[in-house]
Amino acid sequence: MPTTGPSLAFLILILGAVVPGLPSHADGIPASRPASRLPTDRVGQADWEKGEDLLKRIPIPPAPVRSAEEERATFRVDPAYRVELVASEPMIRNPVTFEFDSEGRIWVVEYSGYMRDPAGSGESDPICRVLVLEDSDGDGRADRSTVFLDHLSLPRSLAFVRGGVLIQEPPHLWFCEDTDGDLRCDRKRGVGTLGVAGDPQNSANGLRPGLDNWLHNAFGTRQFQWRDGELVGTETLPRGQFGVDFDDTGRLLTCSGSQPLLGDLIPAEYAVRNPHLREFAFADGNPGVTRNLAAGAGEIYPIRPTPGVRLGARELREDGRLRTYTAACGLCYYDGNQFPPDAQRNVFVPEPAGNLVGRLVLGDGVAPTAKRFYPEEREFLASTDERFRPVCARVGPDGALYVADLYHGILEHTISMVPWLTRQIAERKLDQGNDLGRLWRVVATGRPIHRDTPHLGTATPAELVATLSHPNGWHRRTAQRLLVERASAGALPLLRAQVRPSDPITALHSLWTLEGLAALDAASLQAALESPDDRVRAAGIRLCEREGGGGSLQLVSKYAMDPSPRVRLQVALTAGTFRDPAVFPVLRRVLSQNDGPEFRMAVLSGLEGLELEFLTDWMLRPESRAGDPETITLLARCVLEEGQPGRISDLFRVLLNTSDEHPVPRQALLEALAGFERPVPFALEDEPRGLTTLLTHPDPETRVTATRAATHFTWPGAPRSRP
User: Fold this and answer.
1) Does 7 score more than 70 pLDDT?
2) For residue 720, how far is the Cα from the chain centroid?
3) Are 95 and 437 in contact (CB under 8 A)?
């Protein structure tokens, strides 16, 4: 995924990592850090030079180090909200992410080793910490800070698991325990890896628990569960860059520099199951995973010039302000209960390069799109302080929105530093004030806020089950996690009773809690399948795949013509788990709805090894002749990716059986063959007459495409130079 300007820079900021124990330079720079590369090596032209010319004409305000209260005076927030300080230095410094534990305490991951000077000196020095903030008097302000673990090198993720905390210090994953209850780690052991060392642009992060009971990551190829004191991983797809969250149905959301909101239209567990599809689908922009949901909502409106960007001419307006997101990170789907109703389905996106937090509204459906919440020249929260670096947002137990402010002068990483930025750092003293940082809370004015300590860690199973109906998503997610961790058999009847409540979100959490407890039963799934809410029906079909789910092809096929696209999409995904030609009629019925490209991906994801058979079956159908040639092209490309000469020869026989009467499927097959590029032509055992007969076809388009395709194959007697 290409990155530009601060999207690259901040990615490096939050993803950069150092392997403890690797050889380092004398000044602490990690030896494995990539060499500096000029901007022209990345973009083909020195656009940063144009940015330098632009900024010569624009007065750049100073960026003095401000106290927390002075910084707060620089904020412009939506008038319906207010900003409160939760913690600042010396209590915390350079927070990059944070999480709330079951008692409502805030666990902060600090990033103090990042860019302390333009050279990035000391980047691998173990000066970072994980600490715990407490508010003992309930006034909303942290008054106690305990260092849980220190001497870390650029950590960036943590997750609460049974018995302790997982902490990511790339590439290491540590399991850390507090055995005496003093909030200090007294036992640490390595349990796995996450992220890479020495290449901070390409390092995973996250460890965010999803509705499906897995810990998900951005930019990583693994997701995890904590089972019986050990880390269990499974393959997934890299999505986004920094930051992971989920909507109410468990859809994974992330962001990527200039793309403030990416989302999975189909769960990645399905997208990875067909290796033939993976070979090309993601290079071509898979419409099912990591969809850009905010393609038309990328414009932002900082309230000050934003000079600290490398590719200034590409990203700055004529007045020196960023025109679009370029360092989107640490996004937050709002599922709390303190904000007014218009905040539901909102996504808050920190943009540290623009010194603001954006606000998007996410639509509904299987392929939602997002739009800006505000008109032009308005943002949810913006600052005139260049050092305001919002990098992560979370909904707290009180329903307010919390924002981590790295509060740092230098944004670009040293491997992307250009001369005019270096001069700015020196002239405006942006390398001063390195060990500062703030945590802010944004509260809706005129609405109640409850700061009572949640105490979910000591709640009974019955109380936790009841909490699955809480109007605040943090409470629901935490209760689900604790129920799964405790594996309390006494909770099962209560959970099963909640699968058919009036609230579908409660039903979803109850279903997935049962899944996490390996306690799904036929009655609960049947109740889900009979739900009037399509989100619950879709979850019921998906969970039929789980052990004990009792799912059958006959059961799943009943919903292939469900009125809801969400349900039909899940039918296509679940049908693929049976890996049997008997699913073909079900998949054909789903495709006949023609609901969008994500349906094609859903169908193909479950056809590994059966693509040729389904293609042959599909080509005999009237729908293949009329409309969806892309399905034919994708199926043929999967067959080609198998690389089996016999099956590829069968593909040419399918082509031979096409006719001039129906040119659409023929052209779709030819497009697949023309796109089959290899270092050397693929060797066939016999002449592909289905192709060679088209080299002299009277239709020019057919001839051209057939000629392109012929260059990728060879066979006995094939001419060395084809027409």
Assistant:
1) no
2) 48
3) yes
